[in-house]
Structure formats: C-alpha cells, structure tokens
Design the sequence.
C-alpha cells in the first residue's frame, strides 16, 4: 500500500469495491451472514485505507491527482458555480485560443470576469484545446478581458490548469515570451481585484501568466511548479522518469506553497480528490473565493494596487549577508 | 550539460597569446581579441563576456558603483546540489553574490542604473533566483528614486529550478518592477545576449521600451531540447536566434557589440533630451 | 452591382402571403417569417432588416426616441449622381435623413443610445458620409452626457465615395468618438450585420468593448472584387464571414438574431451592475 | 501639349533636351551661330512650357506625380533631414512590416519619433516592402512607437505614402481592420504632438491609419483619396481605366483637401516635382513641419488633446436642415 501511487490505489479500490459488491450480492441472495459480515468489515477497512492513504499523499500523488483524467476543469466549475457565463472570444489580433476560456460570469450575485485554462475531455476536445498549453493569442485574449474588467470595475477570477505554455515553433514566432511577460506586467498593476486559483496543474510561466493576483489560492491536491517535475528530473538526475523525486525536491504541493508563503489559502477537496465530488469542491471553492473577493472589494483601488505591489516586491527568500557561503567553501 | 552551454563556452587557448574562435576555429591574437570585446573579426561570433567586461565596455570610466552585493541566497528548499553551487559562486574571483550585477554608472555622461547578467556565476547559467529578483528590484527602486534609466543585459537559462516556486515568482517580481518604471516613464532598455531563454524572456527581458540583441544570441522561451522534442513541423534555420526574434517583431534591432554603447546613448538622447 | 448587394437583397415574394428564402429557396409563410425576425427556420439565413425592424426587435416597447434627423448631406464635391441618391433617400418612407438611425431607447429597462445602420437608405449601401459621422458623434455625446451605453449595429459598404476625402475623415471622427466613450468607461457594444465592410470595420465597428456578429454576415476590409483580385493564395471557405472573423479572434461571438437582445442585456448587466 | 499627362510631358522634355544638347554640340564644334541661337530659343521655350504645364496640372497628373517612380520616399527624406535616425523594428506580437519604417530621429535639433510608409526602389525592395501596402503588424508597430513617443513626451511625425492597406487574405486574418481602427482611436487621444505629411499617395484607410494628427500637411503634388481613383472609376463608370475622371470627381489633390478644410497647409515642391530636387523639397518640408511643431510644443497636453478633439469632432460637411432633399424629388 505504501508504494502505491494514487492511480494504483484507485485501481486497487475498484477491485476492492468489486469484491465487496460480490460479497454483498452473495449475502443477500443466499442469506450468507459470514459474507455479509465480511462485506461490512471490508467496507470499514476500505474507509480506513482511504483515510490513511490520503493523510500521507506524496508530492507525486498530488501531481497525478492534479493531472487526473477525471479532474474537474474550468468549465466544470463554471457549470457548478455560475448563474450565467457569457463566453467571449479572441485576442482581436490573431486568433482565439481554445486552451483558455473567459467571459462575463455571475457568481454568488456578483459580476466578475472569469478566465480559466481549459483542457479537453475527449481526444478531439483535447486537440482543440491544445491539452491546456496556451498560445500567445491565449494570453492576449486573457489580457484583453482583464483590461475590460478593469474598465468596468469588475473583479477578475482566474483558474489555473496547464502543463505549461505552448512550446512549439508558431508560438515562439508569435511571441509566447512577450505575451506572458506583458501579462505579468499588466496584471501586477491592474486596477481591479484579482484572485487566481490553481485548480489542477500550475505549470511554470504558462501558469503564472494568469496568476499574478491579489490572492493566490490552491486546491488541496493541485500543484504549482517552476518546471515540470519530469523536466526537472531530466536535468537533475538525467532521467525524466524520476518525476516523483523531482516533485519532492522542488516542493510542488499546495501545502509547500503555503509554507513558503507564496499562496494565501488552500481550498479543501473532498476525500479522494475533487473528481469524486465536483459539487462539494465547487462549493468549497466558492466559499473561499467569495471570502477573499469580499475583503478585496472593501479596498480602494489605491490600497489594492499598493498591497499588491508590496506583495510582489516581497517575493523571494534571501539573507542580508553573504558570509555563510563565502566561508562554506 | 545543455547544448547552449557548450556553444557558449569560452574560447580555448592553445597558447597564452592566442585564442581559438568557437565560431569558426580561427586562431586569434588574444590582445586583439580582447580589444574587439571578444568578437571574432573573421566570423563575427560574439563570445561570452563577464559582467565586469560588459561594464567596462559600456560605462564611462570609473563611473560604476556597485550595489546589492550584501544579500545572498538561502537554499529555501534544501535542494540537491544547490548549496555547493552557491558556495562555488561566492568563491569565484568576482566576489559577487549572484549572477546579476547591479550598480549606478554613467553612459556618455548620462546617469543610469545597470543590471548585468553574468552567465558563469556559480555555474548557475544566469538563472533567476531570489537574489536576482531582489537585486533587480533594488536596481528599479534606485532608478525610480534617482530618475535614472535602467539598462539590463540578459544572459539566462531562465528561472532557477533550485529555488522551486520561489524562483518562478521572480518573474512576477521583476515584471512588476518594470511596470513601475513604465508608470513613471523612466527609460528601460534591454539587451539580449547569448543565451536569453526561459523565465527571463517571459518576464523582464521582453519588456524593454527598446530591446536590442547581440548577433546570433539564442532568444527563446523553450530550452533547445524541449523545443526539439515539441516540434511537429519544420524548424526555421534561424530558429531561437536574435535574428529570428527580429524577423518576428519581438526585438528592435540586432546590434553588433562594438555599437551597443552608442545605440544605448542614442536611445537615451531620444528619451531624455529636453522637450522643445 | 456588387455581389454582396445581390446576396443581401430582400426575399422575393411569390404571393403576398409567402416569401422565398434567399438562402435556400424555401417558401416561407410571411407571417412566420416576420415573427422570426426574417431568419429562415430551414437554413438559418439572416435576411436584411431595416433600422426600424432592428429597433423593434431590440428596444423596450415605445422606448425609442429618435434624434439627429434634422441634419442632411450637402454633396460637397457635386459628385456625379450623388444628389439624385440623396433625393431618393429622403423620399423614402422611413422619413430618414441618412442610413444611420440614432436615438435613445431602453433595453431590458436599461437606458441606452442606439445607432443602427440601414443598408437600403438612398441605395447608398449604409456608407459613412458626413451625416453618418455627425449622427454617430451626437449619439456618443448623448451617451457621454447621460451615461448611457452606446449600441451600434453595422451594415455598411464603407466610406461614402461620393463625399471623397470628407467621408474618409468620418472614420477618424467616429473612432475618436469611441475613444471618448472608452476614456469614461461607458459601455460600447457593436453588432456586425451583413455586410460590414471597408471603412466601417476599419473604424468604429471594430472598436466595441464587445463585438457580436450575425451568422453568415460578411465582415471584411476589402470588397469582394478587390479581395478576389488581390489574392495570390488559396482563399479559406468561410473567408470574409463573421465565422472567419471569430476564428481569427476579431469578434467575441456569432449570435443568432433571436438571441441578440438577450446577449446585449447580459453584457450590460456585467458592465453596469453595481460593484459589490 | 494640353492632353499630355505629366509622364508623357516628361518624356517629351527628355527628347527636347536631347535636341537642345545636339544643337549646342553642333554650335560649339562648328561655331554655328544659328544652331547656338536655336538652342537658346528652345531652352527659353522649354522653361515657358514647363511653367505653363505645371500651372495647370490635372488631378490625374498629381496622382501620377505622387506615384512617380523617382518620387522621394520616407527614407529619402530621412537621409536629407535627419542628423540621426535609429530605426526600430517589430510589433512585439507577430512581425516587422517593411512597408513602414519608424524610429528615433533628430531633426532641426529636436528629438522626435519619425514613422513613414515606405515603398521600394528596385523590384526586390518593392517586394520586401510590399509596394507600400501596410499589413496589420505595420499599424501595430507604428502604434507601439507612437505610444513610446507619448511616454517620453516626444512629438510624432508621420509620412504618408501608400496605395492602401494590404488587402490579402493573411492581412484579413490578422485583423487589418482592427489594426487601422485601433490606430485611429489611439492617435485621436495620443498625449503628444502629432504631425502627418502626405508625401506621395494618400491611399484611403491605409493612409489615414497613420494620419490622425494635430496637423495634416500635404506636399504640393501628393494626393489623398477615400478610394483609389481606379477603384472609384470601376464603380462609377464601370471602367477602371477612367481613373483621371474619378480623380477629378473625387477632388483628390492637396489643393482640394485644403479648400475642403481637411488639411492645414501645402508644402511647395520645386518646379517639375519633388523628384527633381529632393534637397529643396526636404528643406521646404522641414520648414513647414518645424513651424507647426513649434506651435504645438507651446501647448499643454490638455490643450493639445482638446484642440485635436475639436478638430476631429468638426470633420464633415452637412446642413442643419433636411428640406433641400425632401423637396428636390
Ligand atoms: Zn570566428
Ligand atoms: Zn433558408
């Protein structure tokens, strides 16, 4: 059990559930008390196993959960949370990037600009959405919508879920670096409240390009990393399969990010992960996001910008002395 | 070792008085080579320079006053091998605390702030960690307080993996610093040198009012291997170079190293001469 | 006669009670056709509407108050045939002075200003002459003074050749009007209908905070003939349509005519609901 | 003579000059006084013919002169006028359009942002510069430079010389309409003095996209038109060869534009056209531009914006009565 990944554990649970079901069926068909008792016992043990497993998820388990094929995506949360969502399209210069959706949303009686990275469910949608890898036109569409929100004094809520920015030739040609950099700059001084929630994969600069905000939140089993664990592993260990070790070394979990002071709050997921209960996850998310939006709405624009500036200026871990390393050699 | 690292290594020295160009293998007289700021007169290859060499080339004589050298990295994740690299870096002859060197200087008598990347420091490939971010932010603060243009030379492998998410945040920190310059109309000039990649170009290094680049410098978001793996289509011959970036509208000019000081001075003249 | 003009002509009427769809040739009951706002239930073709039909579809009942109908064109160049067209236009049953109809109205009880193009007026193809520009500017002035969103429906062949350079300047005049709305954060919504071409899309009609378009509407800078002559490469199947514009990021949505009122109302709700 | 176009007239002059040269050569070689006198006479008549021809240039002659193969282009004026010109490239999003050049310029001791449409001289350069037809990335590059000028409080000087915006598929794909429209909007409120000079062809929206300015000037033999004369002719007369008639009907000359109150001043060209004496043309241009820049430099930004707003608001010729047309039918 100890060495199982979350995906293996889920497979194990499926088998276990089949066994329990079989026992129950025998018990009810043949009135077999022993079978009935065993079913009860196994059900109890199952719950304990799940508890135990989820109490000590590894960083790699979090990575796998964040990438889980059934993980809720932005549009799943939109469906669960929003009374209205009018999706808007296009960067007004080149195209409309399917890897990011955005538009007017009504949530808890509030109008906000909701922008989220979006993967696809089936192969066709995945291709259309480029597996969540945003292109330059995606960042530019997002910025257009954020600037519109600023003009009309609406808060911006972003959902982060990407393996990274699109690394292909056409994206380099159209300035993927510039597009991300510009978003970082403009989001850092956007004159309206902004909240970013990492709901799945927080893949390096591609994630950050939508995540410079007054509040950065993470779902319990999401992760956020400067480089994909596999990429780190291939540099660090010259072995891309050692992603689990790299994930641990880089401390990519929501709990790590909170400890490092880089995020504001972790949004709890139901036991077993968000995909097992989207409604509850969405409810938790709404509660936390609303709490922060309420606080931010109470600030003047000047205070908002000032607090965000302080927050950004303070990022980093360093010492005011160089002695340690000088003497270490 | 990444490919760009190999390509950018210093020229081999067959004899003390001669160097071999890594671009065309020509044997050059060291004295001439140094005088030419390490640009091969035969093939034009721009060899790497240290931050001190850049400063000497750029700033008015004796005008450089360094700042920000009193802070250092903390290895916040206790990341494998990082402490060793930091120790090595701090032991290097430059006496620097990071691959970013910051200070006041003047260029053609105009007061400026410089933030110059040194790719070699700590064998950390000019990566952006917390010290990089803080020094860049201090440079910006001083530029703002003293109304000095900020001029940065980029040479970077990107964010510093060894500081994990903390280093990713330096992209936000430096980009915000640029936003403050922009809001107060303080000139911000970027020079991209080999290699300018990853988090650096996806933040402060793509945000210059004016962006120059050295000929042949690698300029790209993705590392070479990632790029190679990801490609499903034909890759242009000059892919990931300064010339490619120019062709696609991302930079203002590719500028030969001997001209860069004058291009910066002319740019400052435009931005700062009194309005008529 | 330009091709788009032929394509956009009103449906033929075989008998008073029936109309033929110009999209699919289906014979439709006139009463149903009118109730469906002249959208064919069979093929979805959106037939042209007059400004009055648009207003009826869009504005709360009896809420429309027209303004700007007291000015008229002057034929500043004494251009061949222009006076005749102006006379014809003014004689038309709508009693209008130009192909742009402007007025106050409310949409779902929200006060707005409307500026709606009528393609047919004077057989001048909704072109932008001086009266168009002035009425658009008046509409903007009122939107600014009374803090009302401005909503415009475009149907235009572009600048009005018959007024020469004066008409080209209406592109600058209307774009400046939009700049004023933008500076004061007054919502500006554009709906592109068939055809939205030339100077119109190269000015006010491409500048909406939000841009919707009717399905199948022509949306392009160049006229069809110019486009055909200029092409040296394969032309995409949906070239110069609303769907093409959507695909290339130029508009927010293609919206069926029956939904346009509700999309506008939802947009206004977003832009105008009190901040919380 | 009456029916000659300017191009035919120039050909005629070349022949005439050959005759005069021949006569002079005979005169000097053989001491032929008659030949000498005839040469003098022809030279005198030549001057009169030129005077006379240029006193009554048609609109079409202006069009032909503006498109003349030897017509000076933006970079010719830059060479003649600027002490320094540091060309800048790129729109930071897609490409660098060769049909427009722009950069830091020093002119008459003043730093300004100079932006101009640029045709090519030889076939290769013409292709590289797309014959002066700007693409979306050209308008976006120009806007980037204008916004930089605004940030650093430098005036903007634009040179207009284009047959029109690029009408091809890729330009439609990348939003040529949007790019022009955005320039019109942003130039109308740019917080720095702007002067536009039509130096050659002022081709409809493609020209206007760089020509919303505090002062609009035209060279004496340039033209500025809502649609190419040939395009107008093909609509009006169903005959694209009747450009001359259309040019007249649309009143496309600098003199017409001044009369219609749409431009501020005409910059004189040397007799025979700018291409015969670039230095003098450039001198005239510098004098007039400097005069206007001096006036604009004396205004506060608020006054500048206010005056530009009034100017734009007032564009158009209309009456406050609809009676004329109602009764005309
Ligand atoms: Zn060499
Ligand atoms: Zn039909």
Sequence:
């Amino acid at each position: 059990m100890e060495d199982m990944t979350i995906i293996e554990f889920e497979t194990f649970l499926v088998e276990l559930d089949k066994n329990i079901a079989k026992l129950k069926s025998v018990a009810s068909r043949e009135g077999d008390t022993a079978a009935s008792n065993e079913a009860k016992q196994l059900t109890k043990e199952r719950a304990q196993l799940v508890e135990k497993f989820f109490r000590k998820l590894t960083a790699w388990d979090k990575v796998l959960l964040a990438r889980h094929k059934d993980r809720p995506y932005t549009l799943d949360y939109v469906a669960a949370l929003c009374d209205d969502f009018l999706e808007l399209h296009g960067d007004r210069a080149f195209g409309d990037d399917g890897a990011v959706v955005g538009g007017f949303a009504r949530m808890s009686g509030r109008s906000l600009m909701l922008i989220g990275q979006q993967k696809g469910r089936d192969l066709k949608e995945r291709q259309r959405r480029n597996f969540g890898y945003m292109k330059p036109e995606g960042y530019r569409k997002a910025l257009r919508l954020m600037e519109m929100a600023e003009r009309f004094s609406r808060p911006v809520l972003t959902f982060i879920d990407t393996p990274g920015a699109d690394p292909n030739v056409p994206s380099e040609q159209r300035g993927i670096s510039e597009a991300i950099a510009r978003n970082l700059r403009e989001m850092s001084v956007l004159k309206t409240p902004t909240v970013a929630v990492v709901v799945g994969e927080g893949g390096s600069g591609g994630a950050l390009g939508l995540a410079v905000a007054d509040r950065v939140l993470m779902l319990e089993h999401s992760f956020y990393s400067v480089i994909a664990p596999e990429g780190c592993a291939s540099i660090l260990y010259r072995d891309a399969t050692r992603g689990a070790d790299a994930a641990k070394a880089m401390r990519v979990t929501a709990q790590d990010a909170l400890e490092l002071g880089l995020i504001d709050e972790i949004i709890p997921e139901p036991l077993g992960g968000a995909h097992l209960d989207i409604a509850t996850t969405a409810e938790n998310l709404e509660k936390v996001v609303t709490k922060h939006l309420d606080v931010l709405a109470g600030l003047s624009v000047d205070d908002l910008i000032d607090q965000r500036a302080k927050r950004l200026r303070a990022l980093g871990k360093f010492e005011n002395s160089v002695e340690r390393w000088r003497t270490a050699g | 070792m990444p490919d760009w690292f190999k390509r950018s290594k210093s020229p081999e020295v067959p004899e003390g008085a001669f160097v071999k160009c890594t671009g065309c293998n020509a044997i050059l007289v060291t004295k001439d080579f140094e005088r030419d700021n390490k640009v091969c007169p035969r093939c034009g290859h721009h060899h790497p320079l240290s931050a001190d060499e850049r400063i000497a080339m750029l700033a008015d004589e004796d005008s450089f006053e360094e700042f920000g050298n009193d802070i250092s990295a903390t290895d916040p994740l206790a990341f494998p091998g990082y402490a060793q690299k930091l120790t090595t870096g701090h032991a290097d002859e430059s006496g620097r605390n990071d691959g970013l060197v910051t200070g006041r200087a003047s260029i053609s008598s105009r007061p400026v702030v410089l933030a110059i990347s040194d790719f070699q420091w700590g064998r950390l490939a000019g990566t952006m960690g917390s010290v990089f971010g803080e020094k860049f932010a201090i440079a910006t603060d001083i530029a703002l307080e003293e109304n000095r243009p900020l001029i940065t030379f980029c040479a970077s492998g990107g964010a510093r993996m060894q500081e994990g998410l903390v280093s990713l945040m330096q992209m936000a920190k430096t980009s915000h610093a640029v936003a403050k310059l922009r809001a107060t109309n303080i000139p911000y000039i970027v020079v991209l040198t080999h290699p300018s990649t990853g988090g650096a170009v996806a933040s402060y290094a793509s945000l210059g009012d004016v962006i120059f680049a050295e000929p042949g410098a690698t300029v790209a978001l993705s590392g070479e291997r990632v790029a190679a793996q990801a490609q499903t289509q034909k890759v242009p011959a000059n892919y990931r170079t300064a010339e490619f970036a120019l062709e696609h509208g991302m930079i203002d000019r590719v500028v030969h190293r001997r001209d860069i000081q004058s291009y910066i001075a002319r740019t400052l003249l435009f931005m700062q001469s009194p309005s008529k």
